């Protein structure tokens, strides 16, 4: 039904009345199309009412029009017959069963015409010939009315499409072709019959010819419409929601057509569908890969932080339901950054991949291991029974790292520090468990690394303090809180200062003087040691140049280089730039490195030391004897000075082993033509022993503790007594 009774009340009633009146007039004004035969066209307008208003209103209009016709011509059977036809057509329109003209023809052939013949022949006692004439007349009249009504409807739709820009209105191609083809044949037959204007005895033949023409035309038009429009209708049906069908891999039954152009169109759609299917598959695969990458680490293919958090959240929900317990392990690889920086990221990535494989191999099926970034991993242990079970797993993981890793033919040893939080002790909140495991991991690192610790309440305060200290350390450079103290190095023969060692101190406004033992390890772990070390080097060089500019005799200033500084690719360039910036000659700079730095990368160390020696910078080996000392690297590397570690000097008079070690180092230095400096000298007994053995330089509290630059200047140039004790 086109019109809404509620929304268009006046228009609704007005058009209904107009069409009803036109229906009455159509039945009142007979048109003589054939000699002796009258055609009435009231049904056209009632059929229009059926389309616009539906079954109820068309039935009502049919009764009015047919009743008025009965009043004019006393045709009671016409009322019944035409009302039946209108109801039949209205039901077809409502249910959209098929072609109205074709079905109306079926109505007249099977119901309307037989019923008319029966009524006029048996009830009204007309002869058979006249009954057939009347039946044919009514059948042709009824079919012609339906055809004209259908033609008017098509005209109204076409007019609205173009005139009112109602692009949502569409007409099936089969309806257009069917109507045009049928109309041409019917109207030509009709007008030919009118033109011939046959005699009375020819009326039956004329009407029969028209009816046969209509039926033949219907059949031909239907066949013609099917050949042209069926494949198109089928194609339209199959391509409706085509992307969704392709995406869901639904079966598509492609039609075929005997008409070349239509068949080509279908084949084009089929080819396009195939391409779309392939493209959708590629897109789907790409989406699957993106979803996988969104939940997994790109390098190791382990679950990432987001997926681990979901797994942990699900495990916590399950824990709440069934009372099971779980543990979270936080793993951090010890000194992995040093390997990465020394040997390159390719080696580091391969090492991470091998570590990941080992971790997966040792865990249970329901356990989850993820890489949360860098050299950090999280492990979820579900359904744990007790703390001992978790300890065994953590111990197994630590032992797993004791086996060396072979990467590109080179051996690597690495350890891990593990922090553990257990739901039964540390709560069942996701963020809280992760935080506590993280805190325990840092505590394990502070206790020497290569171990595991369970979270304990007292750790939390320590972690907060450590976090605050790291934040303050980050701001210390900007706020100029660092200062350098200098400890003299004295010639053992002349007791004169020939060098000073620059030692950093941190004077924080809130914390006061912070011990280097407290903030240096933190700076190394956080990577802040690189900018801090660069500041120390620049400040020491500028201070030494300032003393020289004041007219004092030049001496060397020694600066400690951390392992992280030493592996920087641009180390030599930076040192050169600082020397240029400060104006200090390279011969008055000494760099102190440890044995640990040398053995990390022998080839790289040799190259760097060679470049430094070419610049004229002195190099000393600090804490000699505490590492993996090797005569080979002492022979091949460009080293100027050996510094005996204070731990050997401290018990030199009481410990025979320490005495032997110190004596050996001094003799070794002499034989290799190296300068030897003893650190940590605090007593005259120690000093006397070292002098007697031929040690070249003395450094320690016996002469002076580390002092600010102003006091050191007074010591260097004789304005203050050297001995501090």
From TrEMBL:
Keywords, in A-Z order: Membrane, Transmembrane, Transmembrane helix
Residue ranges constituting the GGDEF domain according to the UniProt record: 324-457
NCBIfam families associated with the record: GGDEF
Name of the featured protein: Phytochrome-like protein cph2
Residues in EAL domain copies: 466-720
SMART domains in the cross-refs: EAL, GGDEF
Gene symbol of the encoding locus: cph2_2
Residue intervals passing through the bilayer: 12-29, 36-53, 73-92, 99-120, 132-156, 176-195, 207-228
Organism: Clostridium homopropionicum DSM 5847
Signal sequence, renumbered to the chain: none
InterPro entries recorded: Biofilm_reg_signaling (IPR052155), EAL_dom (IPR001633), EAL_sf (IPR035919), GGDEF_dom (IPR000160), Nucleotide_cyclase (IPR029787), Rev_trsase/Diguanyl_cyclase (IPR043128)
UniProt xrefs under CDD domains: EAL (cd01948), GGDEF (cd01949)
Keyword Transmembrane helix: yes
């Amino acid at each position: 039904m086109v019109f809404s009774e509620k929304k268009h009340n006046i228009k609704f009633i007005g058009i209904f009345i107009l069409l009803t009146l036109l229906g009455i007039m159509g039945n009142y004004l007979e048109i003589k199309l054939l000699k002796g035969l009258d055609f009435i066209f009231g049904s056209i307008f009632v059929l229009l009412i059926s389309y616009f208003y539906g079954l109820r209103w068309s039935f009502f209009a049919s009764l009015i029009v047919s009743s008025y016709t009965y009043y004019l011509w006393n045709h009671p059977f016409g009322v019944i017959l035409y009302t039946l036809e209108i109801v039949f057509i209205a039901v077809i329109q409502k249910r959209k069963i098929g072609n109205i003209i074709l079905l109306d023809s079926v109505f007249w052939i099977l119901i309307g015409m037989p019923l008319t013949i029966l009524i006029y022949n048996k009830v009204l006692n007309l002869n058979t010939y006249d009954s057939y004439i009347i039946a044919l007349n009514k059948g042709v009249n009824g079919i012609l009315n339906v055809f004209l009504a259908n033609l008017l409807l098509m005209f109204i739709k076409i007019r609205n499409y173009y005139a009112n820009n109602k692009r949502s209105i569409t007409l099936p191609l089969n309806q257009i072709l069917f109507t045009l083809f049928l109309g041409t044949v019917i109207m030509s037959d009709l007008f030919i019959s009118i033109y011939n204007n046959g005699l009375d005895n020819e009326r039956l033949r004329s009407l029969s010819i028209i009816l046969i023409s209509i039926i033949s035309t219907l059949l031909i038009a239907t066949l013609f419409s099917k050949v042209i429009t069926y494949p198109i209708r089928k194609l339209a049906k199959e391509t409706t929601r085509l992307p969704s069908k392709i995406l869901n891999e639904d079966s598509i039954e492609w039609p075929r057509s005997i008409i070349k152009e239509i068949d080509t169109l279908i084949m084009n759609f089929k080819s396009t569908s195939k391409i779309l299917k392939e493209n959708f598959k590629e897109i789907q695969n790409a989406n699957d890969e993106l979803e996988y990458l969104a939940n997994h680490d790109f390098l190791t293919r382990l679950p990432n932080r987001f997926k681990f958090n979901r797994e942990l959240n699900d495990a916590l929900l399950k824990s709440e339901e069934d009372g099971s317990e779980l543990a979270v392990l936080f793993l951090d690889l010890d000194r992995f950054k040093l390997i990465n920086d020394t040997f390159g990221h390719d080696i580091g990535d391969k090492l991470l991949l091998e570590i990941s494989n080992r971790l997966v191999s040792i865990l249970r099926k329901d356990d989850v291991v993820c890489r949360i970034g860098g050299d950090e991993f999280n492990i979820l242990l579900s359904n744990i029974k007790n703390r001992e079970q978790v300890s065994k797993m953590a111990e197994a993981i630590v032992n797993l790292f004791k086996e060396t890793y072979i990467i590109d033919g080179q051996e690597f040893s690495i350890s891990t520090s593990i922090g553990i939080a257990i739901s039964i002790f540390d709560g069942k909140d996701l963020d809280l468990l992760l935080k506590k495991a993280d805190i325990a991991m840092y505590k394990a690192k502070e206790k020497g690394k290569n171990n595991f610790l369970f979270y304990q309440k007292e750790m939390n305060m320590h972690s907060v303090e450590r976090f605050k200290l790291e934040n303050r350390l980050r701001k210390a450079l900007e706020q100029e809180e660092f200062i350098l103290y200098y400890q003299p190095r004295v010639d053992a023969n002349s007791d004169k200062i020939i060098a000073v060692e620059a030692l950093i101190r941190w004077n924080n406004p809130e914390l006061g003087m912070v011990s280097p033992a407290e903030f240096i390890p933190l700076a190394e772990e956080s990577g802040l040691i690189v900018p801090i070390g660069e500041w120390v080097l620049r400040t020491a060089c500028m201070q030494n140049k300032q003393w020289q500019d004041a007219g004092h005799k030049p001496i060397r200033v020694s600066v400690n280089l951390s392992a992280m500084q030493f592996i920087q690719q641009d180390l030599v360039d930076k040192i050169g730039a600082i020397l240029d910036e400060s104006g200090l000659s390279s011969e008055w700079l000494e760099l102190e490195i440890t044995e640990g730095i040398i053995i990390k990368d022998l080839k790289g160390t040799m190259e760097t030391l060679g470049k430094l020696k070419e610049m004229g910078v002195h190099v000393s080996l600090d804490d000699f004897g505490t590492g993996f000392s090797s005569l080979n690297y002492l022979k091949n590397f460009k080293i100027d000075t050996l510094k005996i570690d204070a731990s050997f000097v401290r018990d030199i008079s009481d410990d025979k082993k320490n005495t032997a070690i110190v004596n050996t180092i001094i003799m070794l230095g002499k034989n290799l033509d190296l300068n030897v400096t003893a650190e940590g000298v605090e007593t005259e007994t120690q000093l006397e022993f070292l002098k007697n053995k031929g040690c070249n330089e003395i450094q320690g509290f016996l002469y002076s503790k580390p002092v600010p630059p102003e006091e050191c200047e007074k010591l260097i140039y004789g304005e203050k007594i050297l001995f501090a004790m």
